[in-house]
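TL;DR need structure tokens for one chain.
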Amino acid sequence: MAELDVCPVEELPSCSVKIVYAGEIAVGVYNLNGEYFAIEDRCSHDDGPLCEGDFECDEGIAICPRHGANIDIRTGRPLTLPAVESVRTFPVRVDDGMIKVKLV
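>> reply
TL;DR here they are.
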């Protein structure tokens, strides 16, 4: 299991997202009002980018920029069509002021 350094906490303010890369995997790391979550940057509908789209911070919903599917950032579950399969989520932790994602 690799752990990826994302950025210092001050570089990811509340209601923002940062996309990071680990080999072929792209991960969107979200700050939802002080809670951190990470999901695969891939809509399960057509494998297009997900985390580049808009998101609702208070509801924790990522909105696919291609077809508008809503994905729960906390769980990776699809909430609306056309997505029907979940996307991968990854554990996030803060260690000594650095946001880290465990790629499992």
